[in-house]
Amino acid sequence: MKELNLLLLTPAEDCVQLAMDLSEEKSNRFIRSSIQMGRLYIEQEKWAKAEAVLNESKRIAEDLNNMVYLTDALLALERSFFKQKNNAEAIIYYKRVIDQAKTYNYLDRIPKMVLVD
What we know:
The chain has 117 residues and is mainly alpha-helical. The chain is built from six helices and no strands. This is Tetratricopeptide repeat-containing protein.
């Protein structure tokens, strides 16, 4: 069934999907590839797909206690909602990123939220 699904993907999606397929699901490489797929879906305005893959990335990062990838997933979700003009939801995700960055002492590495596209 995977071969059939690959026929429906764009070349960029195909590359990222291949990276995901070659990674163990509970690995950092899988999370990174999933976040990249989510960002690709955001650029394609495939909002439901972006949210699904990014929420899965977020869940796995939380399970692995990987705060770097959790932050990346949250920032990508923030960007998705922002691009959909859902600033209230985007701010919720951004506040979570800020709280986490304060907790783990990496606030200086978080991009400033700008409500202009």
